[in-house]
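User: two proteins, same treatment. go.

Assistant:
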Amino acid sequence: MAFIRKLSTSSGTRFEVRWRPAPGQAERSRRFESHDQAKAFKAQTEAAQSRGIAYDPARGRIKFQTYAEQWLEGRPLASTTRDNYAETLERHVYPTFGATAIARLTPDEIRRWFRPLRERIPSTASRAYRIMHAILATAVEDDLIPRNPCRIKGAGSDPHTERPFVPAEVVLALADIAHARIRPMILVAGFAGLRYGELRALRVRNYDRLHGTLTVRESIDKRSRRKTTKTDSSQRTVTLPRFVLDAIDAHLATFVGGDPDGPLFPGEAGGIISDGWFQREWRAARAQLDLSEIHFHDLRHAAGTIATQQGATMREVMSRLGHSTTSAAIRYQKAAADRDRALAERLDDLVDRLRTPANGSDSDPEPAPRPAGAAGFSRGAALSRQSLLRKPGSEGARDFARRSA
């Protein structure tokens, strides 16, 4: 059993919890600023005792950063994941909790840390919280603390932000207007779904023109370090459509040397393409089409949705994009279904307009002139930026690029 004692100290009123970790052991104590904190700790201690856990607060005096570094060393993580975890902890967790003893972390302190971080950078806040929760869950298993203080419901879930769908004609328009060095990279991302880091890491030997494929084995991280891919499923061979193969062939003839280990998409100096240079040219292409809200990673999502629209199964999409779980493939299926539903509704609107007499009378309308388009629809209607980002089936990409340039 544990009990709480109210104390008056030079720092103000404190509430002291006293208990014996196990029969015959010396009595332990811990002080809290509020009665609620003391009650919560007392309940945790008694619950641990009821489960036969001899909770010793001395073991919980290890600093969070020290324990987190030990945790990272002992986890079977891919090197890229380990680096990402370490960077997140260094930037967002250690400045607040690094010097705090594990046993002194409280749910209230974690809530006060998490709230402003989530307001500034929601996805980073969720990732940092997930890492911290996992570390402290291990501390519970190690009997360093009786209960995990990370108790914010839903805090570890990534906030869902609806990204604009980039249809095929916009991918083509971006490729047409971009610098020739990054043109095939845009096409491969938009129609084969390779990640930006995977594109930068491709070597000449990864391109098989005979079979029309690219083989992904490596990735370049944010610090321009070459590493194996994040997961085994990311290592894959992707078959490319003919127009993408033609673009890569033209690129090889213009920009690439004969070294099979050299980069498939080299920079101006011949090595791995510079991230700064690429981003500058990518921003310039977007700006010319007034599409600044599109991220390069959106092209990968476009590839998944376009593949689904063309009848690819969930397993085929997962294999093509290198996914290890079905969650992303399901998202692409939902996006394709939503767009298919929207298309059906627009077809209803079109037929309603065709059936409605132009003069509003009940008399038979004059026969409408034959539209110029081969499919029976009028051509040349102005395309807004919103329609290109949200509506499938529109004018050709070259018409769009020519009007927008």
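Protein 2:
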Amino acid sequence: MQGHTSRIEYPVTGMMMRWVGLMALILILYAPTAWTAEPVKINSLFTYPEMYKMKVVQVEGTVRNYRMNHFIGHNTKLEKCIQAFSVEDETGTVDASYATICQMGTTMLKDGDQVTIEGHFLGNLDVRLVRKH
């Protein structure tokens, strides 16, 4: 009598592995462009607003007109900081706001700071990252 082995195929598993592999490939190819903001001059944001609308952009310049609103969240009871300011480069000025939880290592700004900010452009910048120089 010959030994008989049976192999059970799981078509869903094979499809899932192909799908995971395809998603990993797309992520590897797309990730560098998705996570890198394009550096722009401030006047470009206002000259071509439709080109930058809702896109993540990077701007370098000097902090001006700094203001901070600081409060305790009603539901979370966490201390929140909203920093509002303008960034000025040699081509113009754009308003920006940076909302964070104060105790989480937030970069605190002041007038005159040289910064690189990254955020979504909506006529102003909704900042997601701040780096001081």
